[in-house]
Amino acid sequence: MAWFRKDKKPLTAQDRRDVPTDVFDKCQGCGEILYRERLAQNLNVCPNCGHHLRISAEAYLSFLLDSGTFEEFDAGLRAANPLDFEDLKPYTERIAAAEAKGKTEAVISGKGELDGIPVIIAVMDFGFIGGSMGSVVGEKIARAGRAALKAEQPLIVVSASGGARMQEGIYSLMQMAKTSAVLARLHDAGIPFVSLLTHPTTGGVTASFAMLGDVNIAEPGALIGFAGPRVIEETIKQELPKGFQRAEFVRDHGMVDCVVDRRELKETIARVLRHQYVGWSD
User: Fold this and answer.
1) Topology of domain 55-280, CATH
2) What residues does each domain of the chain span?
3) pTM reported for the whole predicted model
4) How sure is the predictor about 85, in pLDDT bands with cuts at 50, 70 and 90?
5) Which site among 4, 9, 211, 278 is 20 to 30 Å from 255 CA-CA?
6) Cis preceding-peptide flag for 200 (omega within 30 of 0)
7) Is residue 47 classed exposed, middle or buried when 0-12, 13-18 and 19+ CB atoms within 10 A define those classes?
8) 134: burial class by Cβ within 10 Å (0-12, 13-18, 19+)?
């Protein structure tokens, strides 16, 4: 009988094209297809498995700092090409391509308030040449450290990096010593430094400022190490333990203090700062 039948209209190729391709994301942890807007509301943490998807430096600033309090430092600093590095793709072209995406460097620094606590903050951005540490990145982090020293305010650095920027050679490697020296001055002055390690934090960044925090906090599942797992396996000719160099493994072996869900980072850092420095106690 016709009124009990419901004719189904097949989904055509044209119908599929009408669905915007930027509406959904696929979780790299469980493979779940996630509605992008809802995912953003959850700080890009998969509600199904808890996998932390990568977010931008601007996103970290937006949820770590109180609304309307951020003031950027050194926005005009730009990378140069001190070694006239040329490769299959010249360094200047790599910089131009990264800047064309609306980014100026692999770190954003400035001041603001975190839960009412005045802080100096620097956030690395993996989207700019893999978050690599060149001379500008090192200089901006060092300046942020000196600003924290002058203002006697805690320093927070959010790391996301593939390591030193090879196109700048020794100029990049010098940033390891420069940033570490500034952090030593903060330590001597008793000013807190909180290091937040996100996915990935590797190479010269791990070997310098990222691991020098008074408190080192990692996001769940973040890759943290100097050389990558594949390089280590090829070097020692042995299979690595499951979860090697992931945040939880690194924590269990004493290299970071805690692993904290992104949605709890602001509250956790505020509690750490109030505990470390009586001047910000409630």
Assistant:
1) 2-enoyl-CoA Hydratase; Chain A, domain 1 (3.90.226)
2) 22-53, 55-280
3) 0.88
4) confident
5) 278
6) yes
7) middle
8) buried
